[in-house]
Amino acid sequence: MGKMWSKPWNLSEGFVVGAGVIAVGLMLELSVGSMDWNAFAWPANIIALCVLLALIIVFHLTHKRVYAFRFLSTYAAAIPTLCYVVALTMVMGLTRQTVNGTWINDMLTFWPFVLIYVLLTVVLGVTILRRIRHPKGWRDIPFLLNHMGLFIALTTATLGNPDMKRLRMIVGVGETEWRAINNNNIVEEPPLAIHLNEFIMEEYDDGSPKRFASDVEIYTKSKNKFHGIIDVNKPMKVEGWKIYQYGYDNAMGKYSEYSVFEMVNDPWLSVVYAGIWMMVAGALCMLIMGSRASERKEL
Fold it and tell me: What pTM was estimated for this model as a whole?
């Protein structure tokens, strides 16, 4: 076993690099507090994405002169980074996540969690550029689809999160409402209104709710009108917004005189889905190419 930091660097150096990133994150957490994602709302998020892409390109162009940058595109850097990512993600999955909670209870704003994911995106980025610059034929297709898909999904889901709007609107039967409340209980006026024609509830024999929904008309500021039934698991989609049946007057049951709707707008969601579908396509390509390789061996 070679001496630490003697070239070529191995997994041990990769784990030390990851640990160093986590240590920097802990220092930031203790000095400046948790990560504030609201600071990355549009256009700050697109600027941050451009900076990240520029850094990855610089790392790739200078990798022959700076060994540390070349190391980022190796398995010795990728495997330890993935181990840290998986470990912190498992902590998030096993603990209750709340806004403004403790470190492990609000992992999305925990600096070590954020920075290790940044390291993962950088490793993905330089690895993608290295493969593009040194192609290996048809084998590159599933590799690039998987890695580029993961890169797109990670970056856009994270940076696009501050732009996501999640509002609640209470609408009385026969009334039209333009106002909604955000997660901070601040009144906002979204670009659409809801008119509640009827609240619908179906009950079981014991009187418990079997189904509840709302017959609505949606008016937009662009003067369009839409009619539909909003069920609990069947949201209505209008001009980039998804409108969900959220609640009703529990005390009144089927005689409820109002409905509560949740309105969600995520302008980055289509790009996130594009990244996910690229990964699916990459997995299918690997399956097809693997099957064909097995058939050739049998022949």
Answer: 0.83
